[in-house]
Amino acid sequence: MLTKRIIACLDVHDGRVVKGVQFVDIIDAGDPATQAARHARDGADEIVLLDITATHEGRATLLDTVRRTARELFVPFCVGGGIRTADDAAQVFEAGADKVSVNSAALADPMLIDAIGRSFGAQAVVVAIDARRDPEAADPVRDAQVYVQGGRKLAGRRVVEWAREAEERGAGEILLTSMNSDGMRTGFDCELTAAVSEAVGIPVIASGGAGTVDHFVDVFGRGRADAALAASIFHFGVSSARSLKEELAKAGVAVRLPC
Amino acid sequence: MRVTVIDYKAGNLTSVLKALRHLGAEVEVTDSDAALVECAERIVLPGVGHFAATERLDATGLTTAIRAAIGRGVPFLGICVGMQWLYAGSSEAPERLGLGHFAESCTRFPVCSEKVPHVGWNSLDVREGSQLLAEVERGEFVYFTHSYKAPVTADTAAITQYIEPFSAAVERDNVMGVQFHPEKSGATGLKILRNFLEWEREGAAC
User: Fold this and answer.
1) What was the pLDDT predicted at A56?
2) Residue B204 falls within a domain, yes or no?
3) CA–CA distance, A90 with B196 (Å, rounded to integer)
4) For tag attachment on chain A, is the N or C end more exposed, with fewer CB atoms within 10 Å?
5) Where do the domains of chain A lie?
């Protein structure tokens, strides 16, 4: 049976894992290679490394981090942050990533999705969407808006429409982050996740808001997510992928239990 | 153990090479050296991407070299599209011929409410006697990402269920294929790659 994936996300800045609530109060949370290996050992189904440095000088550091992290990692490994061209993507793949996640660069130039997909296959392209409900709209979920620059700037696209376009252009998966819920630990935005998941035929990874096991049960059920991303709950050993999955299995969610 | 990995420019080889090296294999990569392939000790044909990319194997003469190597008894492992290529063909690129080592053809998952591609960790139902999947227990999970699949036949070494049952692994004598990505399937995947590397080769030297 196909299982629901639990994906461990590492936010990386200058080669170190960091954690902060909505990018403030950033705390050092360790070495990316060590953290990724630990999550994989604990049963995380996949590792996402998001580079939040995103400066030109930071690129070399990032590639080095990717190389070190990928070396002993034998689960799918996705890298995002600062990938603006197909050449950037190629470098990240060469360093050992299996997938890249693109966000604002794909909004600025949607052909980027086609280009990476053509060279590396759809399975290698994850389109990340930062979404915020539109409280002014008649239907805040259906009309939810895409944001860029860490949720500060409107992209001028509706979330569901952009997800559909990304799929048509050859994205293999959608990584949907609810800016409303991000870092709040009050649960995923299940309505928005379900709206996107029903609109596309490719897997949707839910992100933003994980705080308890019930939040995951909810997003896999009502939210129709194929995978869920967890960052803060895994750091500092608060909750491991293993304990999360054991709880999910008890709640009737199909998950891969590590041996 | 020496392994020849064939690069036919369909996606990324890094992960496969890394996993093989991690297991102690001495890896050589070629995209066109037919003599090297013909005299290989073991061959891995990776592949993520489109079935049409296998055209390059014919264009570079590697198809003929692979056929000769297989005929000599060289252990061969096809991964993902590399497995599908062992069949007669795939509806993904109907104009392209596969190796035809297995007589059937690959087809797309039928249209239904489930998502296609099939992405994620799914379980294996291993048939008894498989050497490639020795010591893999029924229900162990491996990582898949694909839209096309091979049918279940007498050569099927493991079945996986998604929308319908399909061949997750195929094996006849020295020719083996896996639809999933052993290089991305944690301890289970490494065990399968190790089985391949330790598969006792018979047959004539080159």
Assistant:
1) 62
2) no
3) 29
4) C
5) 5-250
User: Is position B69 within any domain?
Assistant: yes
Contact criterion met (CB below 8 Å) for A131 and A159: yes
Q: How far is B41 from B33, CA to CA, in rounded Å?
A: 14
Q: Which of B115, B184, B186 sits opposite A98 (nearest CB)?
A: B184
We report the CATH number of the domain holding residue B185 as 3.40.50.880
Which two tokens mark A214?
């019930």
Give the structural domain span for B68: 2-198
Cα A56 from Cα A132, distance rounded (Å): 28
Distance from CA of A98 to the nearest CA of B (A): 7
pLDDT digits (tens, 9 = 90+) for B168-189: 999 999 999 999 999 999 999 9
Asked whether the beta carbons of residue B122 and residue A227 sit closer than 8 angstroms, the reply is no
Give pLDDT tens digits for A142-184: 899 999 887 788 999 999 999 999 999 999 999 999 998 887 8
- Taking the model in full, what pTM does it have? 0.95
A83 within 8 A of A103, measured Cβ to Cβ: no
Residue B205 lies in a domain: no
B10 to chain A: which residues are within 8 Å by CB? 121
Task: Please identify, in words, the CATH class of the domain defined by A5-250.
Answer: alpha beta
DSSP of A18-43, one letter per residue?
Answer: EEEETTEEEEE---HHHHHHHHHHTT
Nearest to A76 among B14, B141, B143 (CB): B143
| A21 pLDDT more than 60 | no
* Set of chain B residues whose Cβ sits within 8 Å of the Cβ of A254: none
Residue B84 has pLDDT above 60, yes or no: yes
A98 catalytic per annotation: no
Outline where DSSP puts E strands in B10-91: 26-30, 43-45, 76-79, 87-90
Catalytic residue, candidates B38, B80, B104, B140? B80
Alpha-helical regions (H) of chain A = 32-41, 58-71, 86-94, 104-108, 111-120, 159-169, 190-199, 213-221, 241-250
Written as one letter, the residue type at B109 is F
Task: Show the tokens assigned to B135.
Answer: 């010591």
Q: What is the DSSP string of A134-168?
A: -TTSSSTTTT-EEEETTTTEEEEEEHHHHHHHHHH
Structure tokens that stand for B29 in this block: 């990569």
Q: Are A9 and A36 in contact (CB under 8 A)?
A: no
Would you call B15 and A173 a contact, using CB atoms and an 8 Å cutoff?
no
User: How many domains does chain B contain in total?
Assistant: 1
Question: How far is residue A160's CA from residue A164's CA, in Å, rounded to a whole number?
Answer: 6
